[in-house]
Amino acid sequence: MNKVLKIISTFLLGLSLGGVTSTTFISTTVNATALKTVHPDPNASEREWTYKDNVFDAGNETYRFTKHKVMKVEGKNYLILYVDVTNNSTKSLNPSLVTMVLRVTQDTPDQVKTLEDDTIATDANGLEPLEDNLYDKLKPGKAVHACIEYELADTKSPVTINFLDSTTANTIGQKTIQLKH
């Protein structure tokens, strides 16, 4: 529902500006991977959650972070995290729920800011199919390319992603991204 409202708002804003949109790519780190499907595991939810080498295994789903970039859209800077999501379970699941166990912060000169996930996908910036993959249910054993977007406080300060255990909210892994400008 929230995604639909954001898309409608963005569309209406675009119409009010005469259809003018502005997207600028600032930096990119590329490490794309091929998608891997798995045999669905009825016990996937019992697996221990881990984070290692850009892979967040959350039991039912595995998230392989493949690259990131900073994108400027309508005057705001966003961190785009590209991720391959695999459903390890025997049920269709919503990959976007991962954002509930990611604590993303940016260490600016004045504060450590908590960043919130956002939706900025359009046909023009090419993120729409990836964002759709994050919010659409993923069938058992299948994998998709997706993206998660965060509005940045600035384009110079590092961003830290803490991967949390869902039952304890303890950090089980951490990734820091040095932004290039």
* CATH T-level fold name: Immunoglobulin-like
Q: Give the beta-strand count.
A: 11
Strand content: 35-45%
Q: Could you estimate the helical fraction of the residues in percent?
A: 10-25%
| CATH class descriptor | Mainly Beta
Treating each run of at least 4 consecutive H or I residues as one helix, how many helices? 2
How far apart, in Å, are the first and last alpha carbons? 34 Å
How many distinct folded domains?
1
How is the main sheet built? Answer: 7 strands, antiparallel
**What is the overall silhouette?**
globular
What does the model show?
- By secondary structure, this protein is mostly beta strands.
- It has one domain (21-177): Sandwich (Immunoglobulin-like).
- It is built from 2 helices and 11 strands, in the order αββββββββαβββ.
- It has helices at residues 2-16, 128-135; strands spanning 23-29, 50-52, 55-57, 61-73, 76-87, 102-107, 112-115, 117-118, 143-151, 159-164, 171-177.
- The strands form 2 sheets. Strands 1, 2, 3, 4, 5, 8 and 9 form a 7-stranded antiparallel sheet that branches. A 4-stranded antiparallel sheet has the order 7-6-10-11, with no helix packed on it.
- The radius of gyration is 17 Å and the shape is globular.
- The N and C termini lie far apart (34 Å).
- 29% of the residues are buried.
- Residues 1-32 have low confidence and may be disordered.
